[in-house]
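Appendix C reproduces, verbatim, an entry submitted by the partner laboratory led by Prof. M.T., so that reviewers can inspect both the input and the predicted structure.
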Amino acid sequence: MTDRLQALLSHFSVNARTFQAGALCGINALDGDGPFGQLHLIRSGDVEVRHAKGKPLRINEPSLLLYPRPMAHRFITDEVRGADFVCANLSFEGGAANPIAAALPPIVCLSLRQLHGSEAVLELLFTEAGAHNCGRQALLDRLFEVVLIQVLRQLMESGQTRVGMLAGLAHPQLRKAIVAIHEQPEREWSLEELGRTSGMSRSSFANSFRDAVGVTPGTYLQRWRVGLAQKALLDGKSLKTIALEVGYGSEAALSRAFKTLSGKSPREWRTMQQAE
């Protein structure tokens, strides 16, 4: 079976840094001002979660909350008993250009019972969170990264991502074409080739892709290439090298595509990112 996440994670890694392990009592606010997403594991206790907009979330069983992008939120728990949390900041490589962060909804809330096959990982994570073993921080960070991959699997396999890249990767036929694009962005893909890769006719593929992913295959390919180009720019590669790696025949062609999507030339974009 095609590995739907391998190319994504090999190009755009995600790193976790644990910052909370233990009870949170009363009101605890996170301002969302930093560059990080966050993953919260609630092992026990009743929790009300509030955001600037929308109804509060009420959690009364072991659950997880995933914020792939910065968002202010508050936890309200019993002032005495509190609730048992283990939390980590998530750093998505490439920042806003990271396709995993961009593909996820603003908030994912799942009961830990829904995270099939994660029992051993969660047991080890909670055990380490309550201990003081050497290497504890590094192990917790890696375990959070494993949990995030399991969340992505669950979202795809359960059909909880209705439109977008993850919805396309959940489709039994379309995912073959999406993985092919991810693995070979430099190739001059045609609709016919992508359709054959998916075992579909040209028209059926184009229509199904647009319905599931929300954009045409050509637009998706362009966005993937530009996302890779942005990551490469931050790594210090030259425009000429990047253009060849991501499938554009010249710097000028890459610059045109880059400006169409980002509103800035590659050099302007890199200067802005470095300043930030």
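The first strand starts at residue 14 and ends at 24. Additional entries are available on request from the coordinating office.
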